[in-house]
Amino acid sequence: MSIRVIAIDGPAASGKSSTAHAVARRLGWAHLDSGALYRAITLAALDNLPDAWSPQRLVPLAEDLPVRLVLAGDVFRPEVAGVDVENAIRLPRVTARVSEIAAIPEVRHWVNVQQREAVGTHPQGVVVDGRDIGTVVFPDAPLKVFLTASPDERARRRLAQRGDAIDPAELRRESDALGARDRADSTRRVAPLRSAADAVLLDTTRLSMEEQVAQVVALARQRFPH
After folding, report:
1. Are the C-beta atoms of 108 and 188 separated by less than 8 Å?
2. How many angstroms separate the CA atoms of 71 and 174, rounded?
3. Are 65 and 44 in contact (CB under 8 A)?
4. pLDDT > 70: what percent of the chain?
5. Smallest Cα–Cα separation from 199: which of 34, 2, 9?
6. Using one digit for the tens of pLDDT, what is the confidence trace for 43-96?
7. What is the pLDDT of residues 127-169, one digit of tens each?
8. How far is Cα of residue 176 from the mean position of the Cα atoms in its chain?
9. What pLDDT is recorded for position 3?
10. Residue 2's pLDDT band (boundaries 50, 70, 90)?
11. How far apart are CA 131 and CA 60, in angstroms?
């Protein structure tokens, strides 16, 4: 029997997590944000290790604290040492360093194992979002979606999400920052950001959140009729 996973990938601020969460709720599935786990490890490293972030220290730290995913209702939440860190992992100090952590092969392997184990605990189905879900973590997912949007639209969404002013100068700065993140994610040696060959490409630049969610739900109901 095939796994009941919808893999949603895409660059930063393309709307992956918001879309995945809404799709999961519409289908009665669970939602897993892989980025939250990378952010949780980054938070743990910032709070517990000096800047020498070797894999030999990071993975044992994640195991010992532990850093883990906990199913709360229909969402897998990140915890560090038993504490819900959903808000703490969104702070700028974590955002500034998470790409560095995510580029470490041993960390990626550890995160992938956690995600596969989490999905195994929720047979109804899980919507997973990230940057290598359809290519590396769940290459056999029956439905893979790759979300894209223009850099300016992604920057506008990120500023709006933070409640920041959307003036031209700030928009350009945010767009440049997202472009740098794209380059880092797309050119890293391990699991670079790219669309799976069999993924459905969905450009959300001119779509409302409701429209993009509806499109993914429609695809899901075709691939998972029951």
Report:
1. no
2. 33
3. yes
4. 100
5. 9
6. 999 999 987 899 999 999 999 999 999 999 899 999 999 999 999 999 989 988
7. 999 989 999 999 999 999 999 999 899 999 888 888 877 888 8
8. 20
9. 87
10. confident
11. 24
- Whole-number pLDDT of residue 138: 97
State the amino acid at position 174 in one-letter form.
E
Model pLDDT, residue 164: 79
Give dist(CA 207, CA 129) in Å, integer. 19
Strands 143-148 and 5-9: parallel
Query: Amino acid letter at 176?
Result: D
pTM: 0.90
Residue whose entry in the numeric block shows the structure tokens 């109901």: 221
> What is the C-alpha to C-alpha distance for residues 189 and 136, in angstroms, rounded to an integer?
13
Residue 5: strand pairing partners: 126
Rounded to whole angstroms, the maximal C-alpha distance in the chain is 52
Q: Is 199 helix (H, G, I), strand (E, B) or coil?
A: coil
Whole-number CA gyration radius for the chain = 17
CA distance 117 to 92: 29
Name the amino acid, one letter, at 116: R
Distances (CA, A) of 99 to 21, 28, 110, 144, 177: 22, 31, 16, 23, 12
User: Per DSSP, which regions of the chain are E strands?
Assistant: 5-9, 30-33, 67-72, 75-80, 83-84, 126-130, 143-148, 200-203
Q: Cα(147)–Cα(153) distance, rounded to whole angstroms?
A: 13
Residues 6+ apart with CB under 8 A from 83: none
In this structure, the strands spanning 75-80 and 83-84 are antiparallel
**Structure tokens belonging to residue 46:** 């910032």
